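User: Can you write out an input/output pair for a complex, sequences first and structure second?

Assistant: Here is one pair. Inputs:
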Amino acid sequence: MASNVQDVIMLLGDSITQGGFIADGFGQKLSHVYARKLDVLNRGFSGYNTTWTIPVFEQLFAQQHEQQHVPKVRILTIWFGANDACIPPSIQHVPLPEFSSNLRRIIRMVTSPTSAWYSSITKIILITPPPVNTRQRGADLASRDPPRDLDREFEVTHQYAEAVKAVGAREGVPVVDLWTILYEAAGRDEAKLSEFLYDGLHLNEKGYQFVYDDIINTINKHFPELHYDKLQSVFVGHADINFDNPAETLKLRKAVLSDR
Amino acid sequence: MASNVQDVIMLLGDSITQGGFIADGFGQKLSHVYARKLDVLNRGFSGYNTTWTIPVFEQLFAQQHEQQHVPKVRILTIWFGANDACIPPSIQHVPLPEFSSNLRRIIRMVTSPTSAWYSSITKIILITPPPVNTRQRGADLASRDPPRDLDREFEVTHQYAEAVKAVGAREGVPVVDLWTILYEAAGRDEAKLSEFLYDGLHLNEKGYQFVYDDIINTINKHFPELHYDKLQSVFVGHADINFDNPAETLKLRKAVLSDR
């Protein structure tokens, strides 16, 4: 059984989060740089929207009475919108006001002192959905057997991205505005988004690179004490072992220096 | 705080394990294919030998009285030898009999019913250290400032790999014999190991591919119920949500079907 020795970064989201452990995905990169400091937990759920995620998150995130036994979530990324923004009659569609209210609810589960899931130690980062390349997505869906109609619109997903930013601003939560970052990187040309999306919806390695970079920038700006370079490994580096009395130096430490 | 919702694969070892979350590393690949089923915990410690790992593992692995609260370790990979095989007077050197006895001690901590760390549910896989390319390693060390002498010998590391196999045979633990796999893949030509080792000691992506493949083969052969294709996701796939009553279908499940 795994003892509770490392706090964690929890990545909550849909398939774009679930897929983040491909080679050069954002989960892979975070795992690599936070090795021996924080574990990175993939809590991405392909196909899920915020409505379906709420009952799941209630089970994923420990309630206060359980928290003494389980790893502390130091960073929680919340990344939705790609499925919520599906066009009706898609079963995945969540109306925009409900999407915003769902996001707020997930955030306040963690940030509200009266919540059963309250965790004052958890730093949240919101991420906006990537822009959709509707030509690429439409072609992908049309090629399926049976062919399917286009299920997302460029401007609709943009509205959901803007809603994420508005929730972040109101709740005081930093936002990685991936929608804008990718659209700018594509020269504000929807067709050129294919450089970052492999099927018009999901990110490739180049797309994930932007997410990773901006998560690290956000950590650096808003909670620099959690940047991987500011943490110590929970067990001492090899060169710092006291070779005359190793056990003395091989005791579990806190990764976050301010916790000492 | 992270609830205990997914059991885990724990990767215990030295720098070759710690580095396994590079793009196309074995940890990255395991994380990807086990997403939503098992979490993969990197417990690799650069520079450590088995002697220094024992007191650390006593803290990493939960004792019986703690086990009800923490994730179950379903698979534990134990991968040492690369540092233990350093030549004296290297401080990392562990004599061969002591290396074997340390490995046995780590295994029996988990497998012996009288151990405080006993975990009947944990399946162990031993991995042999990769062969050393002493020309490549020697050149790397000679290029440092100040230059360092060669610290490992091809045939010595081979003896440590053989010792891992002997411990596995005696303890009834399956072994991924990476030493032999890589040496055969290099046509039994030490110089050609540079195809799999970036510095004569540590694996590159091609080297990690062999480890990943043989871990999956070993799981398939010895505990097929833990192959990722035999597990279910702990939360239901999107297509299986009951859209009329989502919460009913969004309850945490056991990933391992025989646990039900």
